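Example (one chain per record):
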Amino acid sequence: MLSVSEAVAHLLEDSRILAATEQINLMESLGRVLADGMLAVIDVPPADNSAMDGYAIRIAECSDQKKPIPLSQRIAAGHPPQALQAGTAARIFTGAEIPPGADTVVMQEHCEESGGGVLIHQLPPPGANIRPRGQDVRSGQQMLPAGQRLRAQDVGLLASQGIGRVMVRKRLRVAVLSTGDELIEPGAASAPGKIYNSNRYTLHGLLRGWGCQVIDLGIAPDQVDAITTLMKRAAAEADVIVSSGGVSVGEEDHVKAVVESLGRIDLWRIAIRPGKPFAFGNVLGTPFLGLPGNPVSVFVTLLIIGRPYLFACQGIAHKEVIPVRQQALFGHHSSSREDYLRVRSTPGGLELYPSQSSGVLLSTSWGDGLVRQAVNEDIHPGDLVDFFPYSLLS
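Predicted structure:
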């Protein structure tokens, strides 16, 4: 079996950007992936401006603080100022442009208006309370690299440049297929031997959260012909295929054999718990990720192994997720595989869900992250462990 790090490295080495590009409105770009690096086209702010409400002065003219300085103009944000007349001050408000000739702003709390002028009680150092032109961004400066997955602050940064449309990667088309005669859909009446298909909903949620366009292929029965038909459809319509179930060694596990008949399996079985029967290959040239059938195995393997690959296929530059070192409040025996334990963070440390079975999906909702337990290394109460909050894997 490959280690988790070897499996991720193999997938990344095999990855290529599959998503084409399109230009979209900036307002619709949250979560999308930049196709090109973005350079600033203007200085922000475009001119020196006041950091607060106060009075703009030429400080060399204000050595005598006992006499009011005449006020020559009032400058509000959005209104261009006139040059500051010699020996005067300008009433100025936050964000307003500094008038030519002024070099300092005195905050209004240190001033008092009197007889058409302003009396300064406390003189600040030269240049105080002025935000210089280009303090935020200078024209020509790189703001965001290609492959940046746009966050709210990134969209705001682009808006500050007056950029209304951006070139992004199209959403990665991911076909999702669940397999198993036992599966039924939520809303249907339960029946003996049947279980509701949670994997479909877990996969849809994760993939959509990562910016993918999901092509839902529904449930395939444990029949070679039915699985073959759906795999061919998936290969024709999607950029990547993700299946759950059917890649283990049971007599009714047909997915692996079908994939091998239509393409190839490049790796199979990973030293991870839960999720050992993970498979990777292609179907008629379309990349294929075969996840186990147990619901926690689906969740863990897609987060830990599938996510880096799917991000790379969208053009998102790979960044290793650095775990948080946090204290364990539990003990746990090691195994010959890398364990991913469902835990919950508390002020005192990390609590372990009582059952770590791969069929206990409640453990993933109860917790707020995963602890990585190395091969053959026991965890004892008080140990510092590698904790991956779900927020780091989003």
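Caption: The mean pLDDT is 95.
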